[in-house]
């Protein structure tokens, strides 16, 4: 049995991507996981994947994790608090102010409730997309409030640690302001950019490179879910979008008259501001770090990528990140390998010695 902090049982309500992923990770550590969902078919699928078992009469969970859409989170949490009077209840909704306020209004026992939010996910939804390693190295926000003690809420911190996540404490208000900037506004911007592609010509789309793929990746997310998230966190999202609109207006004005005095400075400072912002994004394991990149040319043949990764491992060098680019019909792909700066020269030498070609072009 794997080391663990939670003893269980743990009840998970909602067997979509997050609920099933939590179930898979806890089950792998030997925790008794109880699965529930309004859809019997969803529960059956999650059980088949090994995320836990169906509920039974007499179950007494230590912790209940509510993994349902934001518009029903408070209702389900209140029902779970009433049904399991000895359990701590948390939820993983991407907004925290609204559910807490609604629970207080409903008269729920918030001395046994604390909201939380794992900063992890995928563009695809449902149990079929779940992964036991989804939370490893990711922040897991624990949104404390005055109605609960630190000791009573300890099981949520234990949950995050058991799943390999990094617990981060902040208030519900801080959480909602912060995710508006780092999660909710990026979704809006990505979706609006991708929307331009709907009316683009086939010839234009055929020129798409990694930059477009990077900036539109999350645009394939579920619109119905995001309508709920954005509506629930509307005020901070709108505030940031207004600032973003001001930046866009300044850039448009500069591009409308690129030879006017100050226009090039405006463009340059906007781009440099982006450089500064990117530099603040945490690197691997949540630590700010700067890595060096090598772009390796990979032939479009079976087994080549696996051989490249094996060669990197045989060289005794730790790969910090990997990005791939391959255009349809191309006979080669590009693999951008991120390593610590002190390992870059040695890795390049090792790979060249093993027959790999290094590109001078970064992705």
Textual characterization of the structure:
The protein is α/β, with parallel strands linked by helices. Helix content is 45%, strand content 16%. Strands 3-2-1-4-5 form a five-stranded parallel sheet, sandwiched between helices. Helix 3 (70-83) links the parallel strand 4 (63-66) and strand 5 (88-91). Helix 6 crosses helix 10 (234-256) and helix 10 runs antiparallel to helix 11 (263-279). The longest helix is centred in the middle third of the chain and has 24 residues, at 172-195. Residues 284-288 have low confidence and may be disordered.
Quantity of strands, as a count: 12
Q: Strand content of the residues, in percent?
A: 15-25%
**Run of helices and strands:** EHEHEEHEHEEHEHHHHHHEHEEHE
What gross morphology would you assign? globular
What is the topology?
Elements: E1 10-13, H1 17-28, E2 33-36, H2 40-48, E3 53-54, E4 63-66, H3 70-83, E5 88-91, H4 97-106, E6 115-118, E7 139-144, H5 154-162, E8 166-171, H6 172-195, H7 202-205, H8 210-216, H9 223-232, H10 234-256, H11 263-279, E9 292-299, H12 304-314, E10 321-325, E11 332-339, H13 341-353, E12 357-359
Parallel strand pairs: 1-2, 1-4, 2-3, 4-5, 7-8
Antiparallel strand pairs: 6-7, 9-11, 9-12, 10-11
Helix pairs in contact: 3-4, 6-10, 10-11
């Amino acid at each position: 049995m794997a080391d663990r902090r939670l003893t269980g049982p743990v009840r998970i309500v909602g067997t979509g991507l997050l609920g099933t992923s939590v179930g898979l990770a806890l089950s792998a550590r030997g925790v008794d996981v109880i699965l529930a969902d309004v859809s019997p078919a969803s529960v059956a699928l999650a059980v088949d994947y090994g995320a836990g078992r169906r509920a039974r009469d007499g179950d007494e969970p230590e912790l209940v994790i509510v993994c349902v859409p934001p518009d029903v989170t408070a209702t389900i949490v209140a029902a779970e608090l009433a049904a399991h009077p000895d359990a701590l209840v948390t939820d993983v909704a991407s907004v925290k102010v609204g559910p807490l306020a609604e629970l207080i209004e409903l008269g729920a026992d918030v001395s046994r409730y604390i909201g939380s939010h794992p900063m992890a996910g995928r563009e695809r939804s449902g149990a079929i997309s779940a992964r036991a390693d989804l939370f490893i190295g990711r922040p897991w926000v624990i949104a404390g409030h005055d109605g609960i003690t630190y000791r009573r809420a300890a099981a949520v911190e234990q949950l995050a640690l058991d799943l390999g996540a990094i617990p981060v404490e902040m208030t519900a208000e801080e959480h909602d302001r912060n995710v508006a900037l780092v999660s909710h506004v990026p979704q809006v911007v990505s979706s609006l950019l991708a929307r331009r592609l709907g009316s683009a010509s086939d010839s234009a789309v055929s020129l798409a490179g990694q930059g477009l793929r990077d900036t539109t990746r999350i645009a394939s997310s579920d619109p119905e879910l995001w309508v709920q998230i954005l509506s629930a966190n509307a005020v901070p999202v709108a505030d940031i979008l207004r600032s973003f609109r001001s930046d866009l207006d300044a850039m448009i004005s500069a591009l409308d008259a690129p030879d006017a005095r100050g226009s090039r400075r405006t463009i340059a400072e906007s781009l440099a501001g982006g450089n500064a912002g990117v530099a603040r994004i945490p690197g691997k394991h949540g630590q700010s770090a700067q890595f060096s990149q090598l772009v390796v040319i990979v032939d479009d043949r079976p087994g080549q990528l696996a051989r490249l990764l094996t060669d990197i491992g045989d060289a005794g060098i730790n790969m910090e990140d990997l990005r791939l680019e391959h255009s349809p019909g191309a006979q080669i792909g590009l693999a951008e390998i991120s390593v610590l700066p002190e390992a870059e020269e040695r890795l390049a030498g090792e790979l060249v010695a093993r027959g790999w070609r290094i590109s001078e072009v970064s992705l």
